Amino acid sequence: METPSLAGSAGSGYSSVSPVTEIRAAERGEPIPFSGTFDTGTSGSSEDWLGGVVVVNFWYAGCGPCRDEAPDLEALNIKYQPDGVQFVGVNVRDQAGTARSFADKFGITYPSFLDADGGEIQLAFAGEIAPDAVPTTLVVDRQGRVAARIVGRLDRSILNTLISDAVAEQ
Amino acid sequence: MMLRTGRVDEEAGETSGRPDDHFDRGATSTVVSSPLGVLGWARWSWRQLTSMRTALLLLLLLALAAVPGSLFPQRSSDPNGVIQYFKSNPSGAKTIDALQLFNVYTSVWFSAIYLLLFISLIGCVIPRTRHHWIALRQSPPRTPRNMARLPVYERRIFTLAENAVEPITAIRAAEGVLRAQRYRTRLYENDNPVDEVDTASVSAERGYLRETGNLVFHLALIGILLTVAIGGGFTYTGQRVVVEGQTFVNTRSAYDSFTPGRFFSDSQLEPYSLTLNAFSVTYVENNPSTLGFITDYTASVSTQEQNAPQAVRSRIQVNEPLTIDSTEVYLLGNGYAPEIVVKNPAGDVVFTDTVPFLPQDANLTSLGVIKVPDGLAEQVGMIGFFYPTKAASTNGAFASIYPDLQNPVLTLNVYTGDLGLSTGNPKSVYALDTSMMTQIAGRGTANSAIEIRPGESAQLPDGLGSVEFLDTKRFASFDISHDPTKGFMLFFAITVIAGLGAAFFVPRRRIWVRASKNPQCLTVEYGGLSRGDDPALEAAIGSFTIQHENSLHQQSRSLQKKGTAAS
Asked: pTM for the full model?
């Protein structure tokens, strides 16, 4: 994949990675704890959602595919609220003002961490099943381990299946 | 070629009266009389390909073939240059592209030279190694019967009164001297049965290291080719712009541009983060003639590995990269990043960012793009020029006259419409696509361009809201590269030189010494033969002869002493 230097879009790596990775329960890695500050100024941590399924979406406002998939994420967020599924965004490029405007415009009701300055959450998830492009969506199981990954613009029905599988696990 | 010279020589041969078995005549007759079969041609081609001359020619060709790689922009290293080339010279670029000159190092012709060189080297090395292996285990050849024919020959004749040692004793002494000089030796007794004299000889050879060095050189060259071909596939290099206070995490998504090797996989990226704490530039300020010249750039960074307990602070400077995990982080470029806030008419913040502006000249007149996708009545895009030290020229155009922040000014051309983000396609964060936008401020519109200084704010046209320029930060661009071939390359480069050194400077020579005794005298003959170029052979034989002569005299004296003591 050849992207012009400096003129390259952030998240230039769609083509070389398989878009969906599902990991069987026995083969999952260690639980990944993460915490940070939301774009609203309050802070949050993976410990707050322990025992439930968490969907982590890496994004930024100027990213076309992220804008495109935002309504799908919010729809699934509403759908799985009764099951205790927590959606959380990780903004990798923007500051608070930009991120909040995005949430307002798309009616996003779940919180988003600001990670451009600190990079802690990206670092926590870096490695084998890393967010290799923006957007990337991870489904984290009840034990805090990555159960599935979608790299690039997500497909609502695929994410729906991945979440319901994770919810069904005990 | 061969045929023609043959014929010419044949004609010449008739007049000059060369013998019938002269090699030129032979060559002509074989070419004419027995045409080569398929197998013959194959064998001939293989021999040509694996000859030393061809290997050298291919090596030269490889160097020549790499030249266009520096004349034309390469897709692998300078994709922007290629795009530019296509824009400025579309027809020429097509031809050049068809010749694969934009991808020199992966082109068909470059690969062909490369592979042929590879085959040539292997085809050359294997038989030579076998040959050398056998030679190493063989003892030096028999002493020639007529040593006077050798290129270097010396003879000493001693009367028996003068020297009465036995030939075998004389030869043993010679062998001792030769062995001390690291010759491999073999003794022969009575090896000259022409007449009834008592003879002995020693055959000695040294300089096997020359061929060993030669082979090592070839093998190391193959090693270099393999390292480049295979090892190069595991390398990666990427660039990322980081603003002061922000963090880069080593994942594929974080790179602005990324060039992976053929065998690269995303899981190869080692998890670490790099935060740019501060970026400082040192200018020449006390010398008027070089005022504003930059003496140094320093990026103060904190790096954090995924499982490390805490971050490590370090500095990156030009030509002083930072090594972290198996990557090296180089400081590539830098520039200014104005901190911008955009508010809606109600005064709510809808956009905050520190936007990297890319430098356009030596005084850092910089160009940047601000995209406000959400929160205003329409999507807003701004193309901005930042002048660290603004000055207006006579025609009213702005320019920066000094690279440091003496009189910083930001001007903004404002566009509204569609930023093109809703298509779902990735867009460059450093370019504004104005094809679906209307300009509402700047040259050619009713509103002049917005001009603000740090701490100031200005209203956007049409009551869209306001824009504020808070402060100016610095950004640095880093080049992060991983090259596992470096160690191998160093090893093979050293071996190539060592092998070449041995092949050049270790002389390979044979020395024979024969002693024969008849009732009147003791004759000692010395002969030398070089294998390859050996200007020092004559001197070596000369000094050896003197050394041996002296040892013979010594032996003879002690023999006489013993003789007198016994009688």
From this structure: 0.72
